[in-house]
Amino acid sequence: MMESNGLADSASASRKVRVLLDTDANNEIDDQHAIAYLLLSGDSFVLEGITVNKTNNGGDIFEQAAEAERVIKLCDMDDRISVSLGATASFLDIESNVDQQKFDGVDAVDLMIKRAHRQASDPLVILAIGKLTNVALAIRKDPTIIPKIKILWLGTNFPIAGEYNLDSDPESVNFVISSGALIEIAVVRYKQSTGTAMVTVTPKDLEENLVGNGPDVKTPVVGRNGGEFYNFGDYSLNLLNNCYLFGNPPSRPLYDMAAVAILKNSVWADIKKIPSVLYSNGCWSETDSIQTNLYIRENFNKDEILKDFYNSIKNYSKVEVI
């Protein structure tokens, strides 16, 4: 098995990181910021694809794809990037069908497998910021991709229970962990200072640092809350203004965006290898029955992450698309 000092080992080298993004783009407002950050960080990444999955919020799989496509258009890259549809149901509901020609999520799963096997000097990083169903199905269908991929997943409140992406399909998480694939988990940890939940923004932050920034598109993009937008910065503020804010001052975490950041620069979060664990009955438990290649990322450098995020949108470099 591969050992790692962090998925961003490759990001810190001269080569750009090969990334395939898997997202439930319409679930929240953080996925959109992660997509824009990735697409406009061409100095760090090569994009191998964008896939979507359906979680409990944000509508059906087509609505998840539509929101991803809005952000792609606002990054002025819709002529280069298409979105592949992934799983609607759970891993256990789908896994027995993966050898069939058609199954729930087949387009996303086949793209992951195809990109993993593409001849390249570095493994493919699957950046998963929704449920892990598509990733688990890809490994289930073709386990030979395991040594050819690294996974960075935004999820869990490890070591305590719960979290949206985890609860959306816990069986897929256990399957991926048990496979021995190299996986880093960027923990969420709601209301704690050690997870991505502390990477928050206020409307004032976006007004001062993001509004008006990003590529200017000629044809306006209609937002999911209505209105027409010509750049991502303006859409970002609209998203924030149309969701619930909390805390003092009122703010919202950009969980998924922080995952892109630590793939870009590994020093913006601590890394820790953890024992072989599985999630069952609402808790994490150590097990001797499997050998895992599992790390967590915690203690995120909010200031540096946001500084680079704002700069990447303002002084953008469009990502190369394979």
Summarize the main sheet: 9 strands, mixed
| Elements, N to C (H/E) | EHEHEHHEHEHHEEHEEHEHEEEEHE
Question: Which percent range describes the beta-strand content?
Answer: 15-25%
Shape descriptor reads globular
Question: At the fourth CATH level, what is the homologous superfamily?
Answer: Ribonucleoside hydrolase-like
Mean pLDDT over the full residue set? 95
SS-based structural class?
A: alpha/beta
List the uncertain runs: none
CATH topology: Inosine-uridine Nucleoside N-ribohydrolase, Chain A
Question: What is the helical fraction, as a range of percent?
Answer: 25-40%
- The helix tally amounts to 11
Distance between the termini: 27 Å
The CATH C-level name is Alpha Beta
Measured on Cα atoms, how large is the radius of gyration?
A: 18 Å
Number of domains: 1
CATH architecture, please? Alpha-Beta Complex
The number of distinct β-strands equals 15
Oligomer: single chain
